[in-house]
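Hi everyone,

Forwarding the result from last night's run.
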Amino acid sequence: MTQHPSMKSESISRARYGCAVGAMQSAVAIPGTMPIADCGPGCADKQYASLAFYNGFQGSGYGGGASHPSINTTEKEVVFGGNDRLRELIQASTKVLKADLFVVTTGCISDIVGDDVASVVGEFQRRNVSVVYAETGGFMGNNFIGHEVVVKAVIDQYVGDFSGEKEQGLVNIWTELPYQNTFWRGDLAEIKRVLEGIGLKVNILFGHGSGGVEEWKTIPKAQFNIVIHTWLGLSVAEHLSEKYGQPFLHFPTIPIGSIATGNFLRDVGKYAKIDSKKVESFIESEERDYYKYMEEFSEFFSEYFFGVPSKFAVVTDSAYALAITKFAVNQLGLIPVKVILTENPPEEHRESIREQFRSIADGVSIEAEFIEDGFVIEEEIRNSDRKPAILFGTTWDRDIAKEVGAGVVEVSFPASYEVVLSRSYVGYRGALSLIEKIFTVTIGASA
């Protein structure tokens, strides 16, 4: 952890992420896949409850929540090791439970005592049982780091080697962290929709739009990979480049709204050598609908201009913060006064992330701060010379928002005052939902 100068201790209050064990939710996000938790019962339960329940009440999915098996580590496994218990659990799970793939995710205890999880899982893999393992002990990092460990485990241990032909027009998408991002299901559906709209075949890999493990098996066939995030997924794309010889495109900004989404589709279309007329035809169709809604919205904007917020702050992970900031500035004309990034990204990516915020638009720049501690975040907002009228953040930011007179739009973990089914905040359709939310909150705050 990189400590903020105003922090007085090594502790962190209200961290806005899970530990690496939370990556079991990444396995849950692959349709037909079930995690096997090799950890204590409290670890698995807390990761599910925080990431999937009290975060938009997303639900447990096919193999999450109380459904998935766990070794429920006790003192016996700590003293004598958990290999035998894990072997029994995999045997019983694969016999009783129906899943296309089982993913064993380890916890701190298993990793500290040195259980040979690879050997145990290997016994079943040699018998052609669809099971992989990922070492996700909480001390390894947060669930962003754990996610990439799980993804690489499935690719290396299940998808395996490939020497066939690439399929032109097929792409793999690596973007938001499932469950951590409250709106990931709707966001992935919109990303898949717009890319298919210009003629690509899309492996979205997670969520309802994914074909599950059968889709994962086609990862090596893809013409190229697309990373849509400030940093998450880059190491996966680099791994795929080495393993399968696949190139990748990196878009640090998740597209929100017509301008960003149109430019994104043009860049992808050009790289994939898609007929520009086809790309422009789809963009024109989407913009026609988008701006019809915006034209009608303009009546509200002109009527209530005196109550429309001009300044905003963002407290969330770097990818969503960048996307929301660019949209709010470039399409809504709002002014950023504070940007706090909360997911503790690897040090090697921080300067490139800072540079993204230094060039939000012509003449608009802001220095992003990397802060994990909820107390310090409150102090930064409280002591800021420029107070926001709208705060894009989490449930934990409601008190400080009330104190400084800002309305809250919950866009990040934990979002405990939001019930989220298929809502999206990205692309064309998601942008309209985000506008609705922003100005509904604005009206409510002024009531």
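Residues 304 and 409 are 19 Å apart (CA to CA).

Cheers,
N.
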